[in-house]
């Protein structure tokens, strides 16, 4: 008995719709975690980005990281789903920027 591709696509779409809030939430957490940990690694420990990339937890391969050495910021994103920015702020260490601060960049 064959299941048609349309039925499989329908079930996949329904599953995605049902779990969308959870998927977005996990993407936001992953981006925020990646930005914060990498900012600490880069601008507190003084390691390079290649070394900091090894600190990613299992399952975080989809999180993309980049840095802005001039402003001591790390940008993290889960493509099409979430983004986060962490910035070194003196003695406070690395802090997450809120949505308004990210928009102003």
Which key features would you list for this structure?
single chain; 105 residues; alpha+beta; four-stranded antiparallel beta sheet; 4 strands; 48% helix; 20% strand
SSE inventory with pairings:
Layout (H helix, E strand, L loop, with lengths): L4 H39 L5 H5 L10 E5 L4 E6 L3 E7 L5 E3 L2 H6 L1
Description:
This protein has 105 residues and is an alpha+beta fold. It has one domain (5-104). It is 48% helix and 20% strand. The chain is built from 3 helices and 4 strands. The protein has helices spanning 5-43, 49-53, 99-104, and strands spanning 64-68, 73-78, 82-88, 94-96. The chain has a 4-stranded antiparallel sheet with strand order 1-2-3-4. A hairpin with a 4-residue loop joins strand 1 and strand 2 (73-78). The longest helix has 39 residues, at 5-43. It is elongated. 26% of the residues are buried.
Write a compact overview of the structure shown.
The chain has 105 residues and is of the alpha+beta class. The chain has three helices and four strands, in the order ααββββα.
- Measured by DSSP, the beta-strand proportion falls in 15-25%
Q: What is the N-to-C order of secondary-structure elements (H for helix, E for strand)?
A: HHEEEEH
The rough form would be described as elongated
Q: How many structural domains are formed by the residues?
A: 1
Seen as an oligomer or otherwise, the chain set is single chain
Biggest sheet, strands in spatial order? 1-2-3-4
The low-pLDDT segments are: none
Termini gap: 56 Å
